[in-house]
Amino acid sequence: MTATIIDGLLVSKQIKENLKNEITHLANNNIYPCLSTILIGDDPPSISYINNKQKSANLIGIKTRDYRLDENVSEKELIDLIQSLNKDDEVHGILLQLPLKKHLNKFNILNSIDSKKDVDGLTFYNSGLLSNNKAELVPCTPIGIMELLRHYKIELNGVTTTIINRSNLVGKPLASLLLEENSTVIICHSHTKNLNNLLQSSDIIITAVGNRNKFELTDEMIKENSTIIDVGTSRVNGKLLGDVNFEKVKEKAAYITPVPGGVGPMTITMLLKNTVKAAKLINKIQ
């Protein structure tokens, strides 16, 4: 048996079509969703990510503003920029591209973003709402994964889901979303013991390590007919790979995401969805 390929491009396209309709409706009410992105320094992957986000937003009718700052920008200068965007009624979403330079305090800077414009869902206010099942703006990769699971009608109620990641960006918010759907959640990380035993008893495995040299999910590590969601990305000999040995694991799993074309497109699409949602929340539109 070969696994069903979870097509993130297909699901992403469907969501974007719905967003276009919402954007048209907002425009009829003189509301034009606008996403402001902030990039610090000249890290090539970060530049590529920002360019893709800007392009994707523009293609469906979301306005964008692009702020690119010197790598030596001070924390005060950065927070001053964010606060000016907080006060700008024409801006609905603020995205600060991570990671930040070491001299910048990520916690202080992220939490200077107005929670209503926090389209990455990373402020402590939105994180707190998520942990209480009240969040409106949820981190993009976790909510994108939930959309994929929902689209393919993958059962979550009562199943065991193992997440290999404990970050605020992926693992923790994803655990909250899965718990809300009555999944039994296990979070694993670099200090987890007996990882293989945990994986072999899991119905769903979501891996987001992103370092193929240190970790690779193989077919021996999973059970038959499990669902495998691959969030990791690594460059190996110039080729983009996930955490999963795709060719072997797909012969044992029931469902699997490819890299590229799986979770990646959903992350950007959910950023766009959060921007539209933020525009509606700010303007008190249902």
Written account of the structure:
The mean pLDDT is 96. It is globular, with a radius of gyration of 19 Å. The chain starts with a strand and ends with a helix. Helix 2 (44-59) packs across helix 10, helix 6 packs parallel to helix 7 (171-180) and helix 6 (140-151) packs across helix 10 (263-282). The protein folds into 2 domains: 30-115, Rossmann fold (3-Layer(aba) Sandwich); 140-264, NAD(P)-binding Rossmann-like Domain (Rossmann fold, 3-Layer(aba) Sandwich), CATH 3.40.50. The protein has 286 residues and is α/β, with parallel strands linked by helices. Strands 1-11-8-7-5-6 form a 6-stranded parallel β-sheet. A 3-stranded parallel β-sheet has the order 3-2-4, with helices on both faces. 40% of the residues lie in helices and 16% in strands. It has helices at residues 8-28, 44-59, 75-87, 106-110, 124-131, 140-151, 171-180, 195-200, 246-249, 263-282; strands at residues 4-5, 34-40, 63-69, 93-96, 160-164, 184-188, 204-207, 227-230, 234-236, 239-241, 255-256. Strand 2 (34-40), helix 2 and strand 3 (63-69) form a beta-alpha-beta unit.
